[in-house]
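Lecture notes, unit on protein representations.

Consider one protein chain, 388 amino acids long.
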Amino acid sequence: MRPVEGIRSVAVPVFENLTLRRGLEHDLTRLVRREVLESTSLVLARQGSADAELRGAVVRVDEGVLVSGPAEEVLASSVTISARFGLYRGRRLVVGDDLDGDGAPDAELLLQGFAEFNAVRGETRADATAEALRDLAEMIAFRLGDPWDDRYEGNDSPDAAQLLAPGRHAALIQRDADWFRFEVPARGSLRVRLRGPSSLRLSGRRTEPSGEGDPARPREATPRTAGEGPFPLLARREAQGLEALGGAEPSTLLVCVEGDDEGRPYALEARASADDGAEPDSTPARARRLPGGTRRWRVYGIQRDDDFVAVSVPRGLGLRLRFLLPDRGPLTARLCDAAGEPLAGSRPATPARPLKRPPQERSERVLVRISGDDSGRPYGLLVELSTP
């Protein structure tokens, strides 16, 4: 990236910390210094000898609940860290926010780093805090460069989508629709996450090859809630994230980032895996827990071994299981007890035949065991609580 004209060196003193979370200022300062060295052509220098000085402060830390369990326990949460900064040459602000639109900065910039953590997967608040700080450091370093430098520009339509490899792609700018292509591995999964301001939106479009399952055609993918997606092979959308499951052959996921077209910076993270995002869920003790607050879930996965899903069924409600992909081969979904043993008198659901369990006299927690030929088939299962 090209630096601001006339500035070749910069000093980065320790950020202020206006929150009660101690240590954030030192972590953010260290990360910003590293990003300046790695992603810009600027040289770090001491205060007094540098061409400009970057001054900033951590101003706020917010946490929010994304997914709660049936007993109101928190399963997934988010951390948002807000920081303001400006680049000064002497007393003059040279990089900041132009509030009056005259082309010159007149206020420091306020940026937000966001991350989520899932307790079920063993992720912690400390992990999310570190990730949010990395996002902030990347955005701050990016603002020190040429604001019109986006190496992928020209990617304003699906036909012009840029191919990205798994990994982290930072210092991207949204000033129109940005399209990217990712390869989804056969019998595997690909997770893509958007890191940036909440005004940006992430959606996807899937093109699958001919072969097992549906014929080749684009499908829209804009999931709205955790655990749901409008087409079967897009498993989940978490906070600004997509997960696509692969079939028998590799396929392509087109990803689009849209927003207010104000030139906001963002990053994309992509991770390819040989398993779906719920693994390991192959034992009753590791059963996937469905989020509360609804009576209907879509569960997606890749069947390589038994997959377990825990469902809490209140007294007086029945349970329905139905596969969403009726042509996906020898799959079964069976109701089991806490030890994983089939419930007496309960027949399994199959792609050709759903399961309907009548209401019981007491509340219960049952397990759904998805089994098959262990060949890595992607599947979708509708789990629904029903009234008599």
